Give the backbone structure.
Amino acid sequence: MKLKERIDAPTPKFFRKVRNIGLVLAAISATLLTTPVALPLVVVKIAGYLAVAGSVASAVSQTATEAESNPETD
């Protein structure tokens, strides 16, 4: 299965939840990183890590698909 086919295929329920949580984490981190006030360095670093974690979780979850049945093993 090619990448485009995987992205277009239906995503299982669990991975839809993981994708949505990843999107929320990325949105929270974007909000923290773009605030007009000075935040402590630790908060900025954590927001950066949340952005990466949220983006990766969303991308990986979007490419997850249901396992295809293999007639050789069934």
About this structure: The radius of gyration is 17 Å. Helices lie at 3-8, 13-33, 41-62.
